[in-house]
Amino acid sequence: MPGPVLVTGGAGYIGSHVCKALAEAGVEPICLDTLEKGHDWAVRWGPLERGDIGDGRFVEDVFVRHKPRVVIHLAGYIEVGESVSQPQRYLHNNAGKSHVLIGAAVRHSVEAFVFSSTCAVYGLPQTDALEESHRLAPINPYASSKASVERALAAAAWRGLRAASLRYFNASGADASGLIGEAHNPETHLIPLAIDAALGLRPCLVVHGSDYPTEDGSCVRDYVHVTDLADAHLRAVRWLLLQGKSGRHDAFNLGSGIGYSVKQVVDCVGKLAGQPVPHVFGARRPGDSPRLVGAISKAQEQLGWIPQRGLETQIEDALRWRRALMR
Q1: Contact in structure between 222 and 169 (CB atoms under 8 Å)
Q2: Fewer CB near the last or first residue (10 Å), C or N of the chain?
């Protein structure tokens, strides 16, 4: 693994876990983050460059000073509902600013570029298990912004960039050591919201939609542990470095390949927390697909990546993290 590695969004939830994994592999992560959504306490394994990937002069200075051979790009807004109400903000922040970073990576002959994408780029699934060959048909601005970056990386491949887009399903869990975990403000992800309701940190959980065309009427999602995600990023870098000198762009699903409904997750959180999760049912959230479950054979076969931590482990680690924050 060549270093140093530039990690945009490295002070965030997934980014901090990626930085920890890099440090454990003996590589210094350079964290580039505005701290608008990230946390300075999560920057523990390398220097922080505080700034915006859309600031061309700042990005150029970072590349000149650190000379990264690898870029792992995780910076961006992530809230689907907010993207529906503020589409231009999401397209500018996630897509427009990423073009600045990609341009710098090409100019400085970066050897591997790994992008944090999303399964939401598929839109409404045409198959039970989504494969990377499924059409891209985003149904919300967040997903559209991610698809736009994927297209930019495919174009940059013609200029020699080797890139991989990692299409996450639902990241959850926390580092087993308890050093880092999920701390979004506001929190929008199901598992921490359900945990907070079970622990009495919020009055109740609102389940968005009970009339989807699924077995129990709630959305079905594929959950993957954040530590497994971090491992996949390092494997993607190594894989890209072995692909020769020609530019290329490939996409990989990162999930468990197993779908759980919102109601099933809520029941599991209640079981592991030792008390039921108080919840109510609300309206559907704009931009949500009824079912998103990934086929992960491509990542298994080409990256050698196999997720190790199932849903119960994800919830147990998240519970430990949330309880530690209460102390």
Answers
A1: yes
A2: C
Task: Tokens for 151, please give them.
Answer: 């297209």
Structure tokens at 243: 């692909």
Same domain, 247 and 124: yes
Give the whole-angstrom CA distance, residue 175 versus residue 208. 28
Total number of residues shown for the chain: 327
Would you state the structure tokens that stand for residue 56, as one six-digit string? 């061309």
Q: Are 151 and 169 in contact (CB under 8 A)?
A: no
Q: Which residues are catalytic?
A: 142
User: Does residue 176 lie within any of the structural domains?
Assistant: no
DSSP reduced 3-state for 291: strand
Other beta carbons within 10 angstroms of residue 203's beta carbon come to 10
CATH number of the domain enclosing 99: 3.40.50.720
In angstroms, the first-to-last Cα distance of the chain is 38
Domain membership flag for residue 174: no
Range of the domain at 146: 5-169+225-254
Amino acid at 171: A
For 201-253, how does the pLDDT look when each residue is reduced to its tens digit (9 = 90+)? 999 999 999 999 999 999 999 999 999 999 999 999 999 999 988 999 999 99
Asked if the model's pLDDT at residue 327 lies above 80, the reply is no
Residues 315 and 244 in one domain: no
